[in-house]
Amino acid sequence: MKFSLQKNDSQTKARIGIIDTDHGQIETPVFMPVGTQASVKTQSPRDLYELQAQIILANTYHLYMRPGTDLIADYGGIHNFMGWKNSVLTDSGGFQVYSLKELRKIDDEGISFQSHLDGSHHRFTPANVLEAQRKIGSDIMMVLDECPAYGSSFEYVDQSNQLTLKWARIQRDIYETEKPLHGYKQWLFGIVQGGTYENLREISARELVKMDFPGYAIGGLAVGESKEEMYHFTDVCTDFLPAGKPRYLMGVGTPQDLLECIERGVDMFDCVMPTRNARNGTVFTWDGKLIIKAGRVKKEQIPIDETCSCYTCKNFTRGYIRHLLNANETLGLWLTTHHNLHFYLQLMQTARKKIQEDDFKEWKQKVLFKMNNNN
Fold first, then answer.
1. pLDDT tens digits for range 148-173
2. Under DSSP, is residue 263 helix (H, G, I), strand (E, B) or coil?
3. Rounded mean pLDDT, 274-297
4. How many other CB atoms are there within 10 angstroms of residue 84's CB atom?
5. Which sign does the torsion angle of CA 20, 23, 24, 28 carry?
6. pLDDT tens digits, residue range 311-331?
7. pLDDT over 70 at 76, yes or no
8. Would you please indicate which residues are annotated as catalytic (active-site) residues?
9. Where exactly are the structural domains of the chain?
């Protein structure tokens, strides 16, 4: 992987760059649609190409559970398995195991847990999680980490942080000695943890940088802390991460969150929000969120967003889409999801343009003012 930093904004930490993988170029800042189980819900690869998605995210835990990483390896990797030609990033599954709570137990060597599907017992270790991602064949792999719950004590987060760093060293060493399985290169990112403790975030970032990963993620945010805390600790982390490597904020967030964190030096984002909200009847516009299932929308013969150029907005009215959703018609889910993903990807494209023009900060303020005052 090659990361080329193209331009730094003169007023903020925002920047634009290009990540090169064996499956194509990724222009940053970038939003990655979430395809947890090797599918972005309701959208085909053709739809995603039309939206100009450059990379999607899949999840190691879910693919390990179903259909199994050996089967994906038999296909020659996830790209062949799902018919997707562009890049793929896989989360390690650590966050999903963290969310199981009562079904998992963490020790120094790994995590023992029960499947959310059938209760069967499994174990993740740094080595076998890396092996699973080798079999899946993602372009970017994530280290196994522990995500401490929001509000955890300093002592617990400190201990957790040391465990994540220990696992990162193990995986970094294995990564250096193993070769990819499917004939193209794969890249491993470290994950900065440390909860809401500045000195632990700094320790985590500095130690990971010493290990010289190809890229770095910021984990353990958007797990219950306030927006102000999330923005602050993102800012703290990017201060200690190298300028010449991509920075990925995991699991974030709203359009407002993305713009705030681009300003704080983040290059990569993923979140289920555009797809999940679409299925629940909430769509995003440049004027803020719109609950399209609301009764007041029933007679509105206008697009979701009159400034939007997506297929949904060029062809269908709010009132019709509301009808589809209330009638449980699958087309309604496709239309709202397609629009939301288009909006997120267009937001990133416009952000890149504004950074290039050195007009990001003023543009961001205008966009946020409009969005926030209409919600």
1. 999 999 999 999 999 999 999 999 99
2. helix
3. 97
4. 23
5. negative
6. 999 999 999 999 999 999 999
7. yes
8. 91, 270
9. 2-270, 278-373
H or E stretch at 288: strand 288-291
- Phi, psi (rounded to 5 degrees) for 237: -65, -45
What pTM did the predictor assign? 0.97
**CA gap 327, 178 in Å, rounded:** 52
Calpha distance 39→223 (Å, rounded): 24
Backbone angles phi, psi at 239, to 5 degrees: -60, -30
For residues 330 and 268, the answer to whether their CB atoms sit within 8 Å is no
52: alpha, beta or left? (left if phi > 0; alpha if psi -120 to 50)? left
| pLDDT tens for each residue of 167-189 | 999 999 999 999 999 999 999 99
Task: Give the integer Cα–Cα distance in Å for 140 and 79.
Answer: 13
Q: Find the mean pLDDT for residues 268-272.
A: 98
Residue 222 three-state SS: coil
Q: Any residues with CB less than 8 A from the CB of 132 and at least 6 apart, and which? A: 60, 63, 64, 69, 93
**What is the band of 375 on the pLDDT scale with cuts at 50, 70, 90?**
low
The residue whose two tokens read 């205008």 is 366
Q: What percent of the chain has pLDDT over 90?
A: 93
Please report, in angstroms and rounded to a whole number, the separation of the first and last CA atoms in the chain.
40
**For residue 215, is pLDDT > 90?**
yes
Residue 319, class by beta-carbon neighbours within 10 Å (0-12 exposed, 13-18 middle, 19+ buried)? middle
Q: How far is CA 225 from CA 88, 151, 160, 269, 276, in A?
A: 29, 8, 18, 18, 21
In the three-class reduction of DSSP (H, G, I as helix; E, B as strand; rest coil), residue 24 is classed as strand
Kindly give the residue spans of alpha helices, DSSP state H, lying in 43-153: 45-50, 60-65, 69-74, 78-82, 94-100, 126-136
Whole-number Å distance between alpha carbons of 264 and 54? 22
Is 360 exposed, middle or buried (CB count within 10 Å of its CB: 0-12, 13-18, 19+)? buried
CATH of range 2-270; options 3.20.20.105, 1.50.10.20, 3.30.530.20, 3.60.21.10: 3.20.20.105
For the chain, the C-alpha Rg in angstroms (whole number) is 20
The set of residues, in sequence order, having a beta carbon less than 8 Å from that of 227 and lying 6+ positions away, is 257, 260
The pair of three-digit structure tokens given for residue 298, joined into one six-digit string: 């029933």
